Amino acid sequence: MTDATPLIDLDALDGRTTITVEEAATLLGIGRSAAYEAARRGQLPARRLGRRLLVPVPALLEWLGASAYPERGTPPQP
What we know:
This protein is of the alpha+beta class. The chain is built from three helices and three strands, in the order E-H-H-E-E-H.
């Protein structure tokens, strides 16, 4: 039996400000419960917005040691 959970990659984060804890779990290859527990413990960068728990993409990328803007190191200018 194969896992039917779709995988997301870092390219899927391009242009997004936040992702769900479930998406972060998929990206990290951990379970949903483990991701929520890591967020609760402060091990996974997450912010509560009302009842929702969101993971800021820049904080996640920094936590992973990846840059949100690898080419220039700064965000694109409008």
